[in-house]
Amino acid sequence: MKRTTIASSLFAAAMLLAGAAQAEAVVGQAAPGFSGVDSAGKPVSLNQFKGKYVVLEWVNPECPFVKKHYDGGNMPGVQKYAAGKGVVWVAVNTSPEGGDRGAKASAVNDWLKAKGAAPTATVMDVGGAIGKAYGARTTPHMYLIDPSGKLVYAGAIDSKPTANPADIKTATNYVVQAIDDALAGKPLAQAVTKPYGCSVKYG
């Protein structure tokens, strides 16, 4: 009986750990805290932005869906719009372990500058700890965190899940909508949407 009980307990513990590994951020609950290093080599953490709205954007310069929003200036424009509203914007570049971290950071930083992007910080999520904590699946994958640290939006950048830049003009930008609703003190018109883009690379 004892062996059976121990085995059952170990199995239950393993299942709990597996569930935790697959867990992701949930709208309406506290956003997972994180700390890391940005593309300029400076430390950055979610906690340092406490008391402000924070947008998280998963980004990959090689992804056609990301290029859709950067080549025409859409994403940089939304970043600047958010900044004008006092909203912090953190881009997150998730990549597998290995390779030259400095080179990865430099390449992302140079690309963002070339596109006229204006994130508050760009976190280099080497190994994917931040991405896994949030359940980030695509680039782009967008999140909005309120000043209390609660996640209030998760999903797509907009309503047209294509890589065609021409679709931007007729799409509803869910992030702008979420920012505007939140700042106006209104319930978000869309709190959860289905993200689209290239798969986040964890390994």
TrEMBL record:
Positions of the Thioredoxin domain: 25-184
SUPFAM superfamilies registered for this protein in UniProt: Thioredoxin-like
Residues in the signal sequence: 1-23
Record Gene3D superfamilies: Glutaredoxin
Keywords: Signal
Keyword Signal included in the entry's annotation: yes
Cell membrane keyword on record: no
Domain of life where this protein originates: Bacteria
Name this polypeptide is given: Redoxin domain-containing protein
